[in-house]
Amino acid sequence: xxxFFNKLRIGLMPVLLAVLISSATLLSCDKDELEIQxxxxxxxxVMPVPKEIANGNTVEIRFTIKPTGNYNNAHYFIxxxxxxxxxxxxxxSEPPYQPNDLxxxxxxxxxxxxxxxxxxxxxxxxxxxxxxxxEKQLSFDFNSSD
Length: 146
Prior knowledge:
Helix content: 10-25%
Strand order of the largest sheet: 2-9-8-4-6
Number of helices: 1
Strand content: 35-45%
């Protein structure tokens, strides 16, 4: 009879150990602490631009959006507001952007073209946002070279 209990104890030992480890693992998980990341912040880099612009001239502004993660479903948007001077901002050869309207950005590297329409200094801000609610603000200032 003792031999039977020894065999039973030896046979049940791995099962008991597995149950003990499983229950410890499950009990140590707290649902409030489980964090699933669905927010992917990003940075925006801009190549240097001239400090001066003449009325009627156009400046190319090169942007690169650098996300912190690799998430394929992130969508990026742009809007701008000009608060000094007058000019137009456009994406490649598309129609000029309207201030404070939201436009989709199809790629993470793109170029905008600012055309001066005044003889005074000009300032505007660009906001780039993503589909998660993250937003970056960039300011641009140009002195008149007329």
